């Protein structure tokens, strides 16, 4: 029987098959090709190595960057927050001590781990990629098997370059439209929000998702990354997309992509990384992309989303008790009334950035909407590039000028308001339209209220001051 | 890691589903660089509310948390497990755990016991009616017992064995170092390195 993409990548990394040891099935031992490290989830891992007297087995397969709590203003001054500073300094010391390459703040290659890996060409088809961050699933857009791990697993990979893992189940998410395109104003962010709303925040649990279908085939690498990025919000361990010509074209010539004869060899191997025609998924889901319109969340988990044209749902109409209670709590936290049109929701802040939508195409999309317009009175808008490279590229294209002319703030690279570990936070009760990936209570600052949106919706919302799509601007 | 066989302690009913890791410990606490001392961050937003269960005696001394389904969703932060353990919890009971949380628990020695939702409801009722009721979790027998109520729980066999033996992950893997060496020799030359 044929194998799925995920199974192929798994098999290629099998160091040792888990045995039946009498106490149950051991996990398989998998080799890890690329380990990305950042300042938040690594200090205790390095601490563990130090305590046990263990070295980093493969510094050459490890890369660190500072992203989660770096400031995006005054980046040349020392970090004001003492705890943030300690984490960053600890990472620097650890990388130095253990010989790991680090891209620190203000380095031209610094940025959010999940933006840095792909743009350097380190994320390649058929690789296994891990990072102590759940949005590692982003890298699956290249046909890599990429997943977030906890700090003890970080320590485990540092020490052994392997991970003990139990096989996942596989789920196909088929995204189709008549002509293979998305409707105007609809982006891959809307696609993934719709997927999560359909299968639920636990719907992908235990699965590696494979996104396929004619819509996926036509997406750019950046749009694919946005989708894979949010796989975790459906509860999945990872999300993958089979590599194709779009993938190879994106990788070719990047710093760490194979060169010369090795490139040809690599591409030949990568072409095999497709789900066989006779392979069987454990589950399949179909998404009709022709029916998709811009999507926004109204609640406090990414599954609580609806098309922008709808109204805030009435919890009383929800049959499942847990979901009903969750919806009631969400509405009260979000300060929303059932039946209120989503388009009537007024926001205070608009955030464009994060590993979900902080890449150059996202900034271009937002800038195109904002060009020649002003953001609404009383709204603040933060545009935070996902990496320094994205920042430089945007400045070369003059996007920064478009943003600042419209009244938005143009910042330096990092995670920023995606999780509010740096000074970029929402105040209690403050409401945002955010291109990030999580609308959990307090995610962007204690008491802050988050609506997840695409870069297009973010920009249109900034102009009108209420949740809007570009079509509302004409 | 300490061996775990049985544990008895005060049960804490947490009637909430979808308790995500941002709720268990908000991101601001992740800035620390130590392995311990995260108890003050546990459920910190909710603990501002006086009526929150952990602000009430005797629940504040609890060590067995009985929560709604989909516990530990969201970010992969292992601090969620540390915060629970630093606070004094040894066991979390739920009808469904997020995968990463379950994995993280096993590594740190926290028992994530999967109990059917109707049984969770029974435990909730019992613990609410008689605050301070002790709950005994037997990992060998895979049972949760409180007063006259005994219910089974599910846990991955391998994780159970590891917890019973108190075995650390890295040590287990390094028993297969030969296999890792051999695998490395066979890796294709076109695989990327970060240093080149
Ligand atoms: S941008 Fe947000 S989701 Fe992405 S790595 Fe940073 S904190 Fe995590």
Write structural notes for this entry:
- The complex is a heterodimer of chains A (474) and B (196).
- Chain A is of the alpha/beta class and 474 residues long.
- Chain A is built from 16 helices and 19 strands.
- In chain A, α3 (82-98) links the parallel β4 (62-65) and β5.
- Chain A is globular, with a radius of gyration of 22 Å.
- In chain A, 61% of the residues are buried.
- Chain B has 196 residues and is of the alpha/beta class.
- Chain B has a single domain, classed as Aconitase, domain 4, CATH 3.20.19.
- Chain B contains eight helices and seven strands.
- Chain B is globular and about 65 Å long.
- The model of chain B has no long low-confidence stretch (mean pLDDT 93).
- Chains A and B meet through α2, α3, α5, α10 and α11 of A and α4, α6, α7 and α8 of B.
- The structure holds iron/sulfur cluster (SF4).
- Iron/sulfur cluster is lined by residues 67-68, 112, 114, 133, 135, 354-355, 415, 418-419, 436-437 of chain A.
Could you write a compact summary of the structure shown?
The complex is a heterodimer of chains A (474) and B (196). With 474 residues, chain A is an alpha/beta fold.
Could you give the topology of this structure?
The complex is a heterodimer of chains A (474) and B (196).
Chain A: H1 5-12, E1 14-16, E2 28-31, E3 34-37, H2 43-52, E4 62-65, H3 82-98, E5 101-103, H4 113-119, E6 128-131, E7 145-148, H5 151-160, E8 162-165, E9 169-176, H6 188-199, E10 207-212, H7 214-217, H8 221-229, E11 238-240, H9 245-251, H10 260-271, E12 283-288, E13 295-297, E14 305-307, H11 321-334, E15 349-352, H12 354-357, H13 360-370, E16 380-383, H14 388-396, H15 399-406, E17 409-410, E18 431-434, E19 449-452, H16 455-464
Parallel strand pairs in A: 3-4, 3-6, 4-5, 6-7, 9-10, 9-12, 10-11, 15-16, 15-18, 16-17, 18-19
Antiparallel strand pairs in A: 1-2, 2-8, 13-14
Helix pairs in contact in A: 2-5, 6-8, 13-15, 13-16
Chain B: E1 6-14, H1 21-24, H2 44-47, E2 64-67, H3 79-87, E3 91-94, H4 99-108, E4 111-114, H5 117-129, E5 134-138, E6 143-146, E7 149-152, H6 157-165, H7 169-174, H8 177-185
Parallel strand pairs in B: 1-2, 2-3, 3-4
Antiparallel strand pairs in B: 1-5, 5-6, 6-7
The complex binds iron/sulfur cluster.
Subunit structure (chain B): Heterodimer of LeuC and LeuD.
InterPro entries (chain B): 3-IsopropMal_deHydase_ssu (IPR004431), Aconitase/3IPM_dehydase_swvl (IPR015928), AconitaseA/IPMdHydase_ssu_swvl (IPR000573), IPMI_Swivel (IPR033940), LeuD (IPR050075)
Pfam family, one (chain B): Aconitase_C
């Amino acid at each position: 029987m044929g194998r799925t993409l995920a199974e192929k990548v798994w098999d290629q990394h099998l160091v040792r098959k888990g045995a039946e040891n009498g106490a149950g099935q051991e996990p398989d031992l998998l080799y890890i090709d690329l380990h990305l490290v950042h300042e938040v989830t690594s200090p205790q891992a390095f601490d563990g190595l130090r305590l046990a007297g263990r070295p980093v087995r493969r510094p050459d397969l490890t890369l660190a960057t500072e992203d989660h709590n770096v400031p995006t203003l005054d980046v040349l001054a020392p970090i004001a927050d003492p705890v943030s500073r300690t984490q960053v300094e600890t990472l620097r010391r650890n990388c130095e001590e253990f010989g790991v390459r680090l891209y620190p703040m203000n380095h031209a290659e610094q940025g959010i781990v999940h933006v840095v890996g792909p743009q350097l060409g380190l994320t390649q088809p058929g690789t296994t990629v891990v990072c102590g961050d759940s949005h590692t699933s982003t890298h699956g857009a290249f046909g890599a098997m990429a997943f977030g791990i906890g700090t003890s697993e970080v320590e485990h990979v540092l020490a052994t370059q392997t991970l003990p893992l139990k096989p996942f189940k596989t789920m196909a998410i088929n995204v189709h439209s008549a002509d293979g395109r998305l409707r105007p104003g609809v982006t891959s962010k809307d696609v993934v929000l719709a997927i999560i709303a359909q299968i639920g925040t636990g719907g992908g649990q235990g699965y590696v998702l494979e996104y396929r279908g004619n819509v996926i085939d036509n997406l750019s690498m950046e749009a694919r990354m946005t989708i894979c990025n949010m796989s975790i919000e459906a509860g999945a361990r990872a999300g993958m997309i089979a590599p194709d010509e779009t993938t190879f074209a994106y990788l070719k010539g990047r710093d760490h992509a194979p060169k010369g004869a090795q490139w040809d060899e690599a591409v030949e191997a990568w072409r095999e990384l497709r789900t066989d025609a006779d392979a069987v998924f454990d589950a399949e889901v179909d998404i009709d992309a022709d029916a998709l319109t811009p999507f926004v969340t109204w609640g406090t988990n990414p599954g609580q989303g609806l098309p922008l044209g709808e109204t805030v749902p009435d919890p009383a109409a929800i049959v499942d008790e847990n979901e009903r209670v969750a919806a009631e709590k969400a509405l009260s936290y979000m300060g929303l009334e059932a039946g209120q049109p989503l388009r009537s929701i007024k926001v205070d802040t608009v955030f464009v950035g994060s590993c979900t939508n902080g890449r150059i195409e996202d900034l271009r999309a937002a800038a195109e909407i904002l060009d020649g317009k002003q953001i609404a009175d009383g709204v603040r808008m933060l545009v935070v590039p996902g990496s320094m490279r994205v920042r430089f590229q945007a400045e070369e294209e003059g996007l920064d000028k478009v943003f600042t002319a419209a009244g938005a703030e143009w910042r330096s690279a990092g995670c920023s308001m995606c999780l509010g570990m740096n000074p970029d936070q929402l105040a209690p009760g403050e409401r945002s339209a955010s291109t990030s990936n999580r609308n959990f209570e307090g995610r962007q600052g204690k008491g802050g209220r988050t609506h997840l949106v695409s870069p297009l919706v973010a920009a249109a919302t900034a102009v009108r001051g209420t949740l809007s799509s570009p079509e509302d601007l004409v | 890691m300490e061996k775990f066989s049985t544990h008895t302690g005060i049960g804490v009913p947490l009637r909430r589903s979808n308790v995500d890791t941002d709720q268990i410990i908000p991101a601001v606490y992740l800035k620390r660089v130590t392995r311990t001392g995260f108890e003050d961050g546990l459920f910190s937003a909710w603990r501002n509310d006086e009526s929150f269960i952990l602000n009430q005696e005797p629940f504040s001394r609890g060590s067995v948390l009985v929560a709604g389904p989909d516990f530990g969703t969201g970010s992969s932060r292992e601090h969620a497990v540390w915060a629970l353990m630093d606070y004094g919890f040894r066991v979390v009971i739920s009808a469904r755990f997020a995968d990463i949380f379950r994995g993280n628990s096993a590594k740190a020695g926290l028992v994530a016991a999967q109990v059917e939702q109707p049984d969770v409801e029974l435990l909730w009722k019992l613990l609410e009616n008689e605050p301070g009721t002790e709950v005994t979790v037997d990992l060998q027998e895979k049972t949760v017992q409180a007063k006259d109520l005994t219910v089974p729980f599910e846990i991955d066999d391998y994780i159970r064995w590891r917890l019973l033996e108190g075995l650390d992950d890295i040590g287990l893997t390094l028993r297969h170092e030969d296999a890792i060496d051999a695998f490395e020799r066979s890796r294709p030359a076109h695989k990327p390195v970060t240093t080149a």
